[in-house]
Design brief:
It is built from 28 helices and 20 strands. With 751 residues, it is an alpha+beta fold. Helix 4 packs across helix 9, helix 6 packs antiparallel against helix 7 and helix 11 runs antiparallel to helix 12. The termini are far apart.
Length: 751
C-alpha cells in the first residue's frame, strides 16, 4: 500500500496566513503614533515583504514574514518613523529574496531603499576569507549608520529577535552568533545608549554561549531574590515615607544586575557569588534635576553612603548621553544597595539612547547635550572611513572605540570632552581637531608640561602645544588609543610617504633620462599623451604620479623606464643629445651627475639608512633602491650592500651628503673597558662631554673576562667628524682599553 504525499502549503495555507496576519495586526495596534496615510505605507511594505518571502520558513516552522514583523514591532516600541518601519519589514528582501535596490527605489523611494541597502550583508561578493567578508559587511553597515542612525536601530532590533529565537537555530551556530553579539552588537547598543537592548543582548548571548554557567547563576540569583524580597520591600517603604515627609513626589522601582554583568564581575575580580554585593538596586524617577540632588541628600540622611561610590553623571554625562546620579548606601542588615536618580527624559535616554530622539521631545536644555554626546561617535566613523579604504583596518579602528569606560577631561575653555579610558594627550588633540593633532608637540595638563604619550585622568584640563609644521611619526601609533587618532596618523604618514617617494622618483627618472640623452622628462602635453599611455601599459601604472611613486619606492627601475621612453621618443623622430650622454658618462666615472640625489636626513619615509652599517655624514656612500622600501643609504664598505651590488647593480644610484645635515645620526660603538666600579659612568661622561647622545647601551657578558668587559653603545652624532671626537675622548679615558665604531664589515674607524 503506498502512502499519499500531500504538498506542503505552509505560508499560503490558512493557518500560516492567519498567523502572519495576526502578528501584523499586533504591529498595527502599536502604530497609534502614526497617521492613517503613514500606516498605509507600512501596510504596503508588509504586503510586498509577505509576497517576497512567500514559501520561506524560519527554523521554528513559522512563516518567515513573522521575523520582519517582529523587528518592526521593536522599532515601533522605539516609535521610529514610517521609513524605518518599512525598512524593518523589508530588511531581508534584498539578501534573501533577490529583490534589487532599484526595485525598492521604484516602489518605496530612495530613503527606504538606502536603509535596506545599509542593512544588507555583502554575501554576494567574493572575499578571500569569511573574516574579510564580515569586516566589509560591518564597514558598510556602520557607514550607513553614521549617515542615518535608523540603520543600526533596525539592525539591533533584527539581532534582538534572532537572539530571542536562538533556540530554534542549529546548536553549532549558537557559539558563533553569541560571540558576535557580545563582541559587536552589544557594545554598539551600549555606545548608542540603548541600555535595555544592551542588557538583553548580553544576557541572551551569555545564555547560549555558556548555557551551563548561565543556568547555575540563574538559580543562585533566584534563591537570593526570594531571600531578599522582604528586605527590598522594606527599603522601598522607608524611602517612600522619607520622601513624603519632604513633600517630594517620585516613582520608585527596583532594578537587578543582569546575569552577564554578575558573571563578568565574578570572573574579572575573582569573586564568588556571595561576594557580589550590588546585585540589587533602586531607581528613582523625579520631576526635575534639582529634585534629583535633593533626593540624594534625603537618601544620605536615611542610610550611610559607601565612600567613593558616588557618581554624578548628570553634570558630566556619559559618552552615550546617559545621565543619572549614582550612590551606593548601606541598607538594612548591612546590605549595599545602589540608588539611581534621574528625571523622566533622562530615564528615556538611559533606556533607549539615540532612539529617544523619536520617543520623547524634551524642552530641557540638558537633553540636547545628551543627544549630541550620544551621536558624536557616529560622526567620527565617517572621518575614519575618509582615511581608511581597507575594510579590516576600518573595523580594527572602530573596535578600539567600542567599550563603555571613559575619562572626562576639559579644554582650556572648560568644554567637557569624553575619551576612552587609557586615552593619551595625543588622542585628545585629534579629538579636538585633526589639524591640532598633526601639529601637536606637547601639552600642559593642569598647567604642567607633559609629553604627548601622557595618559589622561578624570578632571584634567588640557592645553595642546603645537608647532608650525605637521610632524606625525610612526611611533605615535604605539600609544594612541582612539580609532580616530590612529586613522588620522596613518593617513598622514601614507600621504607624506607618497609625496616624498614621488619627488624622489621624479629626480631619479630625470637623471636616468639624461643618461639616455634626454634633457628633461616629457610633459603631459597632448603630443606626449600617446607616449605616456604606452609607458603606463609597459609599467602597469595608471598615472604619471603612480609611476613616479613606484620608481621612488624601488618598485620600478628608473633606467629601464628611461630606455623605454627613449625608444618611444625615437619612434616619434626625436634624437638623443650625444653631448649630454657623453657628459653623463664622464660624470658617472668621475663624480656625481647633476641629477644625483642629495640627502640631509629630512627625507622621512622615502629614504632609509642601512641598519647594517649606519652611515654618517662625511662617510662615502651609495644608494640602493630596494623593492618597495624606497632608497636605502649604505656605507661604501658595507658587506651587505657589496653583495647586493653584485646581484642587483642596476638598482644602485649615486648619492651625496648635503653640506648641512638637519638631524643627528646613530652610530654603534664597541668600548672595551677594565672591569671595575664606576666604569660605565666614566664612559658615559666621556661621550656626553663631546655633546653626543647615548640612545642605547648593552653589556656583552659572553666574551667579557674578569679583567675586561665590552660595552655596546648606540650614540647619536652630527657626522663622522663628530664621531671621531667621541672616539678620541673615549681613548683618553683611563678605564678604556679600546673604542671603535662597529659596522657590518671590518671596523672602519678605531682609536
Amino acid at each position: 500500500m503506498s502512502a499519499v504525499i500531500k504538498p506542503v502549503l505552509a505560508p499560503s495555507s490558512a493557518a500560516a496566513v492567519n498567523a502572519a496576519a495576526a502578528s501584523f495586526l499586533a504591529l498595527v495596534q502599536k502604530l497609534d503614533y502614526l497617521n492613517p496615510e503613514q500606516v498605509e505605507l507600512v501596510r504596503k511594505a508588509y504586503r510586498f515583504a509577505d509576497q517576497a518571502h512567500l514559501g520561506q520558513k524560519r527554523n521554528s516552522g513559522e512563516p518567515y514574514i513573522t521575523h520582519p514583523i517582529a523587528v518592526a514591532m521593536q522599532c515601533a516600541e522605539w516609535r521610529l518613523d514610517t521609513q524605518a518601519l518599512m525598512a524593518a519589514l523589508l530588511h531581508d528582501a534584498m539578501e534573501d529574496c533577490g529583490i534589487s535596490k532599484l526595485d525598492l527605489v521604484e516602489r518605496f523611494g530612495l530613503p527606504v531603499a538606502e536603509l535596506v541597502d545599509g542593512l544588507t550583508k555583502l554575501d554576494k561578493l567574493q572575499f578571500n576569507t569569511r573574516e574579510e567578508g564580515q569586516a566589509e559587511s560591518f564597514r558598510k553597515m556602520l557607514l550607513a549608520m553614521a549617515r542615518d542612525v535608523r540603520v543600526i536601530l533596525v539592525k539591533l532590533a533584527d539581532r534582538s529577535h534572532n537572539m530571542r529565537t536562538m533556540s530554534d537555530m542549529p546548536r553549532p551556530k549558537w557559539s558563533r552568533i553569541s560571540s558576535e553579539t557580545l563582541d559587536i552588537y552589544a557594545p554598539i547598543a551600549n555606545r548608542l545608549g540603548l541600555n535595555q537592548t544592551y542588557r538583553e543582548l548580553q544576557d541572551l548571548a551569555f545564555r547560549y554561549s555558556m548555557p551551563w554557567r548561565h543556568q547555575v547563576l540563574l538559580k543562585a540569583v533566584t534563591r537570593s531574590r526570594n531571600r531578599r524580597k522582604d528586605l527590598m520591600k522594606k527599603v522601598q517603604a522607608e524611602v517612600e515615607l522619607a520622601f513624603q515627609k519632604h513633600d517630594l513626589s517620585l516613582k520608585i522601582f527596583g532594578r537587578e544586575k543582569t546575569l552577564y554583568s554578575i558573571y563578568k564581575k565574578m570572573t574579572t575580580k575573582h569573586l564568588s557569588f556571595a561576594q557580589v554585593t550590588d546585585i540589587y538596586g533602586m531607581r528613582l524617577i523625579l520631576p526635575s534635576v534639582i529634585d534629583c540632588y535633593t533626593a540624594l541628600g534625603i537618601l544620605h540622611q536615611l542610610y550611610k553612603p559607601v565612600p567613593g561610590k558616588f557618581k554624578d553623571h548628570i553634570a558630566i554625562a556619559k559618552v552615550n548621553g546617559y545621565q543619572s546620579l549614582h550612590t551606593t548606601l548601606v541598607g538594612p542588615s548591612g546590605i549595599n544597595i545602589e540608588f539611581q536618580m534621574r528625571t523622566e527624559p533622562m530615564h528615556v535616554v538611559a533606556e533607549k539612547g539615540v532612539a529617544a530622539h523619536w520617543m520623547y521631545k524634551s524642552q530641557e536644555p540638558q537633553s540636547e547635550t545628551a543627544q549630541r554626546l550620544g551621536t558624536q561617535w557616529l560622526q567620527s566613523l565617517l572621518d575614519i572611513q575618509n582615511e581608511t579604504n581597507d575594510a579590516a583596518e576600518f573595523w580594527d579602528h572602530v573596535k578600539v572605540d567600542l567599550f563603555p569606560d571613559a575619562v572626562y577631561v576639559f579644554t582650556p575653555k572648560s568644554r567637557i570632552m569624553a575619551l576612552p579610558r587609557g586615552a593619551t594627550v595625543l588622542d585628545f588633540a585629534y579629538a579636538v581637531h585633526s589639524n591640532i593633532g598633526d601639529h601637536a608637540n606637547g601639552a600642559r595638563i593642569n598647567g604642567e608640561l607633559v609629553p604627548l604619550r601622557t595618559e589622561l585622568k578624570n578632571g584634567d584640563v588640557i592645553e595642546i602645544v603645537t608647532t608650525p609644521t605637521p610632524h606625525p611619526n610612526p611611533s605615535w601609533l604605539s600609544f594612541v588609543r582612539t580609532g580616530r587618532a590612529r586613522s588620522k596618523i596613518r593617513h598622514f604618514l601614507k600621504t607624506m610617504a607618497q609625496t616624498e617617494s614621488m619627488e624622489l622618483g621624479d629626480k631619479l627618472l630625470a637623471q636616468a633620462l639624461r643618461a639616455e640623452g634626454i634633457e628633461s622628462t616629457p610633459g603631459l602635453e597632448s603630443e606626449y599623451q600617446g607616449l605616456w599611455e604606452k609607458v603606463f601599459r609597459f609599467t602597469g601604472s595608471k598615472t604619471r604620479e603612480e609611476l613616479l611613486i613606484d620608481i621612488g619606492l624601488g618598485k620600478r627601475v628608473a633606467s629601464i623606464v628611461a630606455k623605454r621612453i627613449m625608444g618611444l621618443l625615437s619612434e616619434q623622430g626625436h634624437k638623443p643629445n650625444t653631448l649630454l650622454i657623453s657628459q653623463e658618462r664622464f660624470a658617472s666615472s668621475d663624480t656625481l651627475t647633476q641629477g644625483g640625489v642629495v640627502i640631509d636626513g629630512s627625507e622621512n619615509a622615502s629614504v632609509q639608512y642601512g641598519l647594517c652599517c649606519h652611515p654618517l655624514p662625511a662617510d662615502p656612500i651609495f644608494g640602493y633602491l630596494g623593492h618597495g622600501e624606497g632608497l636605502v643609504i649604505h656605507h661604501e664598505q658595507c658587506n651587505h650592500a657589496q653583495k647586493l651590488r653584485h646581484k642587483d647593480s642596476e638598482r644602485f644610484i649615486d648619492v651625496e651628503w648635503s653640506d648641512e645635515p638637519v638631524r643627528l645620526f646613530e652610530a654603534p660603538l664597541m668600548v672595551t673597558v677594565t672591569n671595575g666600579p664606576g666604569v660605565l659612568a666614566k664612559v658615559a661622561s666621556a661621550i656626553s662631554h663631546e655633546d653626543a647622545d647615548i640612545t642605547q647601551v648593552n653589556m656583552n657578558t659572553e666574551i667579557s673576562s674578569a679583567d675586561a668587559i665590552d660595552l655596546r653603545f648606540m650614540v647619536a652624532v652630527r657626522d663622522k667628524i663628530h664621531l671621531d671626537s667621541v672616539l678620541k675622548s673615549l681613548a683618553r679615558t683611563s678605564c678604556v682599553i679600546q673604542a671603535q665604531r662597529v659596522m657590518s664589515t671590518k671596523n672602519v674607524d678605531s682609536d
